Amino acid sequence: MDFGLTGKRALVLASSRGLGLGVAEAIAAEGADVMITGRSGEHLQAAADAITARGAGKAHALALDLSDKATPARLEEAVEKSFGGLDILVNNTGGPPPGAMSEADLSVVHRQFEIMVLSVMDVTQRLLPGMRAQGWGRVLTIASSGVIQPIPNLGLSNALRASLVGWSKSMANETAGDGVTFNMLLPGRIETDRLKELDAANAKRSGKDLDQVAEAARAQIPVGRYGQVEEFAAVAAFLVSARASYINGSMIRCDGGAIKSV
């Protein structure tokens, strides 16, 4: 299937590794030009060079930190300079520290809200007018299965990412008439460095062996294994494609069936 992404211009936030990089690679493989972002300039440029070398879409690297309040304006300027506009925005952020919500430091909550929620809203509001004016756009926000079924010991992530659900749905209602769709993609346990860090934290907290923790986690997933980045990224590439024009205001799960609700 031709996704209709050849020549499209995409910005993928927090894409130097893990899910973000996987999504950028999948979109570029369909012929889109992508801008990848992250804090490590050298590592980011190497990732961009590798994407471009594959010969489909080209990649641009932009080193920045979403915790810097000047970042949304920098992104807006960089997109205009490199692309002259944008067709696809993939909102992605790193996760907050694990821990119980009842024990959260409110100063940490406030700071993480700025990074994980306000920065996403700011970047989107800056880049959305161009999409609406051209009559075509895709905004995909990567969150977590925890917005549907809260994940133990990830209280801050559950709470903050859930705030983006109402925002994305509201935006979907407001912009669909201009040809711009808003959707959310919810990863379950996808095998990334972040997942390894969380398994290690759970092992330390419970006093169990790391392999035992991972085995118990896999046993809770109907397909019996962790997901692969490429599987998740393929779903993302479809959701931002021309073929997904009638999917709007939705939350798509990519979790192997781990969420227990319908």
Automatic annotation (TrEMBL):
Signal peptide: none annotated. InterPro entries: NAD(P)-bd_dom_sf, SDR, SDR_fam. Transmembrane segments: none annotated. It holds the Pfam family adh_short_C2. Belongs to the short-chain dehydrogenases/reductases (SDR) family. This is 3-oxoacyl-ACP reductase. The lineage of its organism: Bacteria, Pseudomonadati, Pseudomonadota, Alphaproteobacteria, Hyphomicrobiales.
